[in-house]
Amino acid sequence: MVMANVTTTCGFLLMGFSNTRELQILHALLFLLMYLSALAGNVIIIAVTTLDQHLQSPMYYFLKHLSFLDLAFISVTVPQSIDTSLTGNGCISHGQCMLQVFFFTSLAWAEVAILTVMSYDRYAAICLPLHYEAIMDPRACEWAVIAVWLSGGTSGILYTAATFSITFCRAKVIHQFFCDIPQLLKLSCSNDYLGVIGVAAFMTVLAFICFISIAHSYIHIFSTVLRIPSAEGRSKAFSTCLPHLFVVSFFLSIGIFEFLKSTSDSPTAFDIMISLFYTVVPPTLNPIIYSLRNKTMREALRKLLLDGEFTKKKTFLSYC
C-alpha cells in the first residue's frame, strides 16, 4: 500500500540495484567514475578530431559524431541513477520517464545507424580506394549524419508514443535503474502493449538490415586486406577495422540478447548487469578502443596537449 502511494505521487519508482545504503553509495561512486571516464574520453575525441587538421577525413568525422552519441547516451541514464542512489529516492515523474525512453531509444538506434555508416566508410576506403573521395565526399558525409540523427529521432518518437499509450494499471515499480521499456510493458494488464511489439518488430527488421550491411562490408574488407602484399599495409588496415568490428559486435549482440531474453518480475543481478553492458560500458570503452589503438589519434592527442598546438588553436578560434 505504501509503495502504491509512492508511485501515485511521483509517477514511477526506480528500484535500482540495492536497498542497502552502503551498496547504494558504492554503486553511485562506481557509476560516477565510469561517467567521468566516458565524459573525458569522448570530449577528448571530439576536441582532437575537431582541432587537428590531419583528422578531417570521413572516418574521423563519423567518429566525432559517435562520440557525441556516446556522450548523450550515457547521460540519459547514469546521472539519474547516481542521484537515485545518493538520495535514496527512486521517484521519477511520468514526464521524466517519457523523456528518458525517448532519448534512450533515439540514441540507441542512432548508434546502430552511425556504426553502419562507419562500416561502409571503411569498405569504401579499403575496397574502393580509387573512388573513395567521390563516394565519401563532404556533402555525402553530412547527409549520412543527418540521416543518422533523423532516424534516431523517428525511432524515439515511435517507441515513446507506443509505450506511453499503454494503460498502466499495476503499481508503477520499475525493477531497473532507468525507465526500461520491457519493465514498463509489465505494468500493463491488458493487450494494449501490442503497439510497442509492432514498433520493436519493425526496428528489429531495420537492425537486421544494418547487421547484414555491416557483415557484407567486413567480408569484403577482410578479403581485400588479406590480399595486401605488405604486412605493414595489412596491419594498418586491421588497426582501423578491428576496433570498429569489436564495437559493432559487442553493442549489437548485447542489445539483441536483452530484447530476446525474458523479463522476470524480480530481475536478478545478472539481468541488471546485462543492462549495464549496453547502457554504460560501450560509451565508456569506445574512446579507449578508438583512441589508444589508433596511432594517428595518439599522435594527434600528443601534439595538441604537449606541443602547445591546442593552446594556439584555441587562441586563434577565440579571435575568430
Question: What does the model show?
Answer:
- With 320 residues, the chain is mainly α.
- The protein has one domain: Rhodopsin 7-helix transmembrane proteins (Rhopdopsin 7-helix transmembrane proteins, Up-down Bundle), CATH 1.20.1070.10.
- The protein has helices at residues 2-10, 21-51, 58-87, 94-127, 132-135, 138-163, 181-185, 194-225, 231-260, 269-279, 281-292, 295-306, 309-319, and strands at residues 12-14, 91-92, 173-174.
Briefly note the CATH topology name. Answer: Rhopdopsin 7-helix transmembrane proteins
Report the C-alpha radius of gyration, rounded: 22 Å
Distance between the termini: 62 Å
Class from secondary-structure proportions: mainly alpha
* Fraction of residues in β-strands: under 5%
CATH superfamily: Rhodopsin 7-helix transmembrane proteins
Could you estimate the helical fraction of the residues in percent? over 70%
Largest beta sheet: strand ordering = 2-1-3
What is the top-level CATH class?
A: Mainly Alpha
Task: Give helix and strand order, one letter per element, not per position.
Answer: HEHHEHHHEHHHHHHH
How many DSSP E strands?
3
> How many strands, what sense, and barrel or not for the largest sheet?
3 strands, mixed
Low-confidence stretches: 1-5, 310-320
The pLDDT mean sits at: 81
The domain tally reads: 1
With helices defined by DSSP (H or I, 4 residues minimum), what is the helix count? 13
Quaternary form: single chain
Q: Would you identify the CATH architecture?
A: Up-down Bundle
Choose one word for the global shape: globular
GO cellular component, one term: plasma membrane
Membrane topology: Multi-pass membrane protein
Keywords: Cell membrane, G-protein coupled receptor, Membrane, Olfaction, Receptor, Sensory transduction, Transducer, Transmembrane, Transmembrane helix
Family: Belongs to the G-protein coupled receptor 1 family.
